[in-house]
Amino acid sequence: MQTIFEDYLFSQGYFVAKPEIEEERLSLQRAAESKLWSREQAIEALRGMEHALEAIVALVHFARIRITANPELASIEMLDVAKRNLGFDVPLPFYRGYPDSVRELGPFERLVDQLLHYFRTYGLGDFTEAGRSLLEEYGERDAFDEDVEPKEFAIITSDEAEAALARMAEGFLASTRPLNDADYNLLKTYLREHPSFTAEAIAGKDTVARLIIDMRNPQLGSLMKLSDVIRLVEWLLEIYYGGASIRKLNLKNRDRKLLSAILDLQFERGNVDTLTCLEKKRIWNGLLHHLHYKPKCAEAEAFCLAMRTKDQRSTYSMMEKRLAAGDMRGAVDVLCEHKGPGAVLRHLDYLFSYCDAENYDEDVSYVLDACKTNNKIMLVQLLLKYGGFAYYKEGNATRTFLFVRLGKLRVHRETEEESARRRAGSTREIGERMTVWLLEQLEKSCRGTLGKVYVDEGMRNSALPLQQGASMGGFGTLPRGTRIPIPGGKKIRAFTYWERVDDIDLSCIALADDDDAMEFSWRTNAWAEGLDFSGDQTSGYHGGSEYYDVNPSEFLEANGDCWHYLVFCDNVYSGDMEIDDEWVPCIFSNCICRAGYMLRDVVDSGEVFEPATVQTSFVINCSSRSAYLFALDLQDPAIIWLNLGENSMRNVAGEGDVSFLKGYLHTVDIINLRDFAQMLATEVVDDPAEADVVFSDEPPSALDLRDDQELIRSSDTARIFELLN
Hints:
- By secondary structure, this protein is an alpha+beta fold.
- The protein is built from 27 helices and 23 strands.
């Protein structure tokens, strides 16, 4: 089985048995049942038990992994899978005796230590080896002896693994939302390895576009609309042309042929939404010209004529004409007729601003009556927007817009000119009214999807996977906004480690409720009580690492309760790097970098990096120099998932405004997996034994489920995608 599949199943709590071990165990089982054991078979059975026991002991010792199903299928190769996902041979940080050796040095000694290191690396240009402290007294560390909650894993057969992967593929294909790189690559690899698997429908336009490009298969174009071809071109430019502008095309001949074949297919199948395409008429005109496209049917000729002449028709132009004439309801009707209720939902604030002051309530009701929909994804997205009004500025205050495009988070802060042109600010009253209305619509669209459902109370801390496009994948990753309570007596050790680059910075930014922020790093104030930093390490091309230890209660007590959150982020500090005789920007996708956090005892033992304590370890591979990892709620101790690659070449944390992240920190207060699961139920039951479907992150051994019951966990992204769509 390919590594990418093994790693995905590991993230879901499964090891896959080796086929030869399966066959061997099955053969021995048959012999035992028939009571016809030979001496050789009996010896082989004992050897198999010995090898399985050896593997189980190794997994418990090194990673605190407990096998709960099919332990007789265990093999020592499973330890390699655990090592790859949890991290074992991790480079030592600048202070090798971290955190004790950090505390034993005074602030001045730490500053001198770091400056001497920088003089050697950046001053003298010596990046030959990873930096180490010159002043610390490093001694032998105590053996690891901490209270660690074991991770429960099941061993599944190759057939069960194939079934799980097929369900994964079906879930990802059903998602209308963009997939992140990890999920997309998993899906792409699965489709290539399983040519007999037929994708009859692909819901996400980004997914279709990327598969067409990677598989060079124009027939997949039948699964998209003609207007989606522009998105296909944008992905093509992002992947193969360094994100070049779609207004300045210079495509290779093979890409022109691919696009022309897709256009021919669209016209042949009658998949022509001309009115929508007219919204980007200038771009279409440039594309047709660049392709030297020659129509092959009457419908293609009519389309090309519309794009190349002065035809100004489009749904939005007709909408604007009616709004200019004071006919807001007519504008709503145009949107509904030509683009559906979803288009009305996407323009609610704009349409509300045209509601007549004297008949405001009636006009708002008219808009809402026109945009009733069963689209769960859109309803949840709007619910997060309007339900989060308490956390956003109102009126004419400058707004920040967040959107994911082509796999990157784009942050746009409203300019003064844009603010001045804005018709009106949204009000809290509209926000509250919309929240009630959206919940009603969502409950109607969900009702009766599943049968009897049991929902663990802990699911209230789990977010829905809506904004996965700019996230990264790996062990322990969860949907953005998910909260993980921190047990008492524990501290958080945030970590990052890397190769193929000299300097990656792990930084920590404190956020207050009033949007005030302060960076805690080596050059600012990383030496605050309750917060220990391992030292800023450079020259780690062949391996470097950095750590933060946070004791939430101690930090609050020492620094006052003005800070509510600590946000951890990674930045690539190194400049350009040489790849294949070409100098390119040093971004995460050109490095090897992982990040995550451990739960450690306040007085810790063992090595700086102990795999047994790793709660998450994910790959940072976004096409930028900046990534937000997770936040720590200091006042109600919990980790809050961010896992967000920003479209930024900023190589130093704390330089930009990060207050926009607060919108993600309250996601589960608005809607969470528990709420959504209860909406889906025909009946909510109090006993898991009575349920058809169980939503829980409890260890499987604690649930004691039957074979006919389905278990859905917060990490089952593909299955939740299906339910959302």
